[in-house]
Amino acid sequence: MSFVTSQILLYAQRSMPAIVNVNGRISDQAHAAISVFDHGFLYGEGVYETLRTYNGQPFLFDRHMRRLRTSAGMLALSVPLTDGEIDARFRDTVRAAGLGDGPDREAYIRILVTRGIGELTYDPAACPTPSVVVIVKPNVDPAPEVFERGVKVTLVSTVRNHPGSVNPLIKSNNLINNALAMQEAFRQGSFEGIMRNYRGELAECTQSNFFIVRDGVALTPPIDAGLLPGITRAFVFEVGAEADIDVREAVLKDADLFGADECFLTSTTREIVPIVQVDDRKIGSGVPGRVTQTLLNAFRAKARALSIHQPAIS
Ligand code: PDD
């Protein structure tokens, strides 16, 4: 199957209908609605998290909740629910979607918290009640050949947001920076786009973090390069320690990427995807490398093991 065909299939599966919880009210996606006066819509003021289940359990739920609260705090936005209440809302919605109860019934879960409804002013006091939305869909893994053959990415010209502007630490609903970068990648038929920061160093992809492998060591840009501290990225450090693979942070430049032995990207929905080509240049031998494969296998084993001991969503 060609990359383009597999992408079309992926979008077809991704476009399967969602079940949505808007401020506690569950509906199908056609009936999920929010006011145009919500400042999430008007100004992009909001934060989000994307989770998935393994064995029916939301994976690394506590870490996602911590990051959600950090992101919200950086917008002076309060999350109006406890972790327990968010967990209950997840579970209700996953159950309503008929998911989370079997190995081929894993869920994709997106939670959004926005400023809420208010007058046309930037004054947060105009919006007393934040909105909380949970979107649940069947989880769709990338096609098997994405992992087997690896993917092409584009080194895009769109610069990652300056941390003094909209800090990439914030997992914000305001995704213009990411969307513009990914448009460049789409135009090149690429799976992802790698962005540089304002200093010209490599930062992250539009929806994932990335690593290079040099002399057996996996290297990823440091957080102060201006990037989202990915939960999968952090998990790769833990998996690497157990698999005897050195994983470190390092400032990376274009030459490090093009001279790498291997390269891969990480995210909740993609796990670890080998990158074998950047624009028209092959990375390493042009096929997924040993370190990437080892980390992917160890990642999957650990993710499933961590999720196996609890009962599935009930
Ligand atoms: N994207 N960097 C950016 C800009 C991201 O949007 C994401 C996640 C990541 C990886 O983070 P994590 O490992 O915690 O998923 C890095 C999610 C999947 C999304 O946008 O839906």
Summary tags:
314 residues, alpha+beta, D-amino Acid Aminotransferase, Chain A, domain 1, D-amino Acid Aminotransferase, Chain A, domain 2, six-stranded antiparallel beta sheet, 9 helices, 15 strands, globular, binds N-(5'-phosphopyridoxyl)-D-alanine
Structure description:
The protein is α+β, with helices and mostly antiparallel strands. The protein folds into two domains: about 15-140, Aminotransferase class 4, branched-chain amino acid transferase, N-terminal domain (D-amino Acid Aminotransferase, Chain A, domain 1, 2-Layer Sandwich), CATH 3.30.470.10; about 145-305, D-amino Acid Aminotransferase, subunit A, domain 2 (D-amino Acid Aminotransferase, Chain A, domain 2, Alpha-Beta Barrel), CATH 3.20.10. It is about 30% helix and about 25% strand. It has helices at about 5-15, 40-45, 60-75, 85-95, 145-150, 175-185, 230-240, 255-260, 290-310, and strands at about 20, 25-30, 45-55, 55-60, 105-115, 130-140, 150-155, 190-195, 200-205, 210-215, 215-220, 245-250, 260-265, 270-280, 280. The strands form two sheets. Strands 7, 8, 9, 10, 11, 12, 13, 14 and 15 form a nine-stranded mixed beta sheet that branches. A six-stranded antiparallel beta sheet has the order 2-1-6-5-3-4. It is globular, with a radius of gyration of 19 Å. It starts with a helix and ends in a 6-residue tail after the last helix.
